[in-house]
Amino acid sequence: MTRRPGLSVRLKLTLSYAGFLAVAGALLLAVVWGFLLRYVPDNEQGLLGVSPNRYLLVRTFFPAAAVAMAFLLLFGLVGGWVLAGRMLAPLTRITAAARTAGSGSLSHRIRMEGRRDEFRELADTFDTMLEQIESHVTEQQRFAANASHELRTPLAISQTLLDVARRDPTRDREELLVRLQAVNTRAIDLTEALLLLSRSDRGTFTREDVDLSLVAEEAAETLLPLAEQRGTTLDVTGGAARTRGSAELLLRMVTNLVQNAIVHNLPAGGTVTVHTEEQGGTSVVRVENTGRPVPPELVPTLTEPFRRGTERVRTGEHAGVGLGLAIVNGIVRAHDGTLDLEPRPAGGLLVTVRLPGTP
Length: 359
Description:
Blueprint: H1 9-35, H2 54-102, H3 118-167, H4 173-202, E1 208-211, H5 212-229, E2 232-238, E3 242-245, H6 247-263, E4 270-279, E5 282-289, H7 324-334, E6 338-343, E7 349-356
Parallel strand pairs: 2-4
Antiparallel strand pairs: 1-3, 4-5, 5-7, 6-7
Helix pairs in contact: 1-2, 2-3, 3-4, 4-7, 5-6, 6-7
């Protein structure tokens, strides 16, 4: 946005200081005139025939007053310029940091020293904002790079299959179609997951009353065949847990948690427990499963996009796209809730989602 040039804040403050001193000096002279000189007799003998009269005092006083006014004005200009510079020095540092950030360097911080005042509070707020923006930009860049890699993989596989079929016309077309369908399905699932993650991060959805216990039962009913296929016992316990949000997104949240709990479980004889309850105005969903021990240092990374358990790439029927817990985390944040992941000593994971309850 282009603006016409104007006076700097430092010059405005300088003129304000000088003007204030000039006005204060003029008022002081007016007080002297009003309460002193006007009581001096204006005659040839003066006061008691000894003191000077008003005419002599005025001729003596006003030249000195004019010199004093000129000194006050000059002192106000010089002193105001120096004081304004010292007062605005922190603002200059903040402006320089803003220009640096505007040029694309988000790693710069002001880190203004001294006791807390308005400028230092502004500098600290600006540093916090830069830190959050840098973290968000870094996360988005990493997410974009991972998403590009993940989307490129099925396309590359499809290209390879087509090249092989072109070079070998006698190859079984049915097998080729089956493999191409599987690769295409994976690409579609990944795209839909990316769109869902973007939607949950934006928070653009209609809120309605949702009972998480009913959501948990629906998710468990949907995933019961998968649990039976893998020999996992799936239980839903607890009572009503009401909140406000998107029923579709909350269903996807619980479904992803239950599916992860089933897939990342023991090969046989595992258990998954889904529990819902209300605690002091908060609606809680807990998903607990058995499985291999989870290293504590790995837990903070599980909600990052494209993380699949302890490995970056998983194989198998339910390999997924590595966005399950990332989508859960985005949905929880969009609903103003919290997501806690805690490794169980015996193996497996305890995931707790807390969302604002409804009266």
